[in-house]
Amino acid sequence: MINKKPSKTLYLSIESRLCDVALVGHAVRGVCACSPLKEEIYGEMEVCVVEALNNAITHAYRRQEGYRVDTAVTLHHDRISFEVSDEGTAIEDFAPRSLEFDPEVIGSIPENGMGLFIIETLMDEVNYRSHNGRNTLSFCRYFTQPQA
Questions:
Q1: Number of C-beta neighbours around residue 84 at 10 A
Q2: How far apart are CA 35 and CA 89, in angstroms?
Q3: Is residue 72 a contact partner of residue 137, using CB atoms and an 8 Å limit?
Q4: Which residue among 36, 89, 107, 115 has the highest number of C-beta atoms inside a 10 angstrom radius?
Q5: Given a cut of 80, is residue 95 above it in pLDDT?
Q6: pLDDT tens track for 8-61
Q7: Sign of the CA dihedral with 81 first, then 87, 89, and 90 last
Q8: Which residues of 89-118 are buried (b: 16+ CB within 10 A; e: fewer)?
Q9: Contact 20, 33 (CB under 8 A)
Q10: 3-state SS track over the chain
Q11: Separation CA 81–CA 64 (nearest Å)
Q12: What's the pTM?
């Protein structure tokens, strides 16, 4: 039998204000420091959670304050996982994103709308569900990449 450590979860809740998102980002870096991830990966994890929170505040709540956005960061034996939940407007037709732009032409790079693309690019798994008025974007990164 494989000796698996029990998972540990940190739950964070902020009001739907963009100025509070950085608090969660700093906490994500702290949790990453307790994981086997290399230090240069911490920023990628932080960016993904910050993008998910910004999306919830900007799109689900239309930047209206007074609502709650919840984040769960879980350390498993083989991965770190994140869930960002809100009770705002759900994402319709959630599907993998693709961006059509020429990285050599600075003017073709979108100014916004890249959050989900970034998350899908940096994470190993990304899922979205909306159930009983609660929307949850979940994503994870494995500590060791599966062999091809």
A1: 28
A2: 33
A3: no
A4: 115
A5: no
A6: 999 999 999 999 999 999 999 999 999 999 999 999 999 999 999 999 999 999
A7: positive
A8: ebbeeeeeeeeeeeeeeeeeeeeeeebbeb
A9: no
A10: CCCCCCCEEEEEEEECCHHHHHHHHHHHHHHHCCCCCCHHHHHHHHHHHHHHHHHHHHHHCCCCCCCEEEEEEEECCCEEEEEEEECCCCCCCCCCCCCCCCCCCHHHCCCCCCHHHHHHHHCCEEEEEEECCEEEEEEEEECCCCCC
A11: 27
A12: 0.85
Q: What's the token pair of residue 145?
A: 């990449």
Written as one letter, the residue type at 120 is E
> For 79-93, 106-120, 124-138, which range has the lowest pLDDT when averaged over its residues?
106-120
Tokens of 11: 């739950």
